[in-house]
Amino acid sequence: MHVFRESTKRLNHPLVGELELDQETMPPKTAAEDGLKLLASWSATTGQEQDAQSTSNPPPRQA
């Protein structure tokens, strides 16, 4: 049985304002789920590397 759900979530973020996010629920254990997990892991790792670089090499201070 294939269960398909989609919806729209609306948020008002204090920094970026109104966001409208489309949501789609996929059945568990799919190739898409595996791909999304890989992308999330890669994104988190890349973000940590960028944070470490910006901390170790802060921009020059301006007078």
What does this structure look like?
The chain is of the alpha+beta class and 63 residues long. Helices cover 41% and strands 29% of the residues. It is built from 1 helix and 2 strands. It has a two-stranded antiparallel ribbon with strand order 1-2. The longest helix is centred in the C-terminal third of the chain and has 26 residues. The radius of gyration is 18 Å and the shape is flat. The N and C termini lie far apart (65 Å). The mean pLDDT is 80.
- Could you name the ranges where pLDDT drops below 50 across 5 or more consecutive residues? none
- First-residue to last-residue Cα separation: 65 Å
Total beta-strand segments: 2
- Side-by-side strand order of the widest sheet: 1-2
Instruction: Give the helices and strands as they follow along the chain.
Output: EEH
Estimated radius of gyration: 18 Å
Q: Mind describing the biggest β-sheet?
A: 2 strands, antiparallel
Helix content: 40-55%
Query: Proportion of β residues?
Result: 25-35%
Overall shape: flat
Q: Return the structural class.
A: alpha+beta
Mean pLDDT: 80
Q: Total number of helical segments?
A: 1
Secondary-structure map with pairings?
Blueprint: E1 5-13, E2 17-25, H1 31-56
Antiparallel strand pairs: 1-2
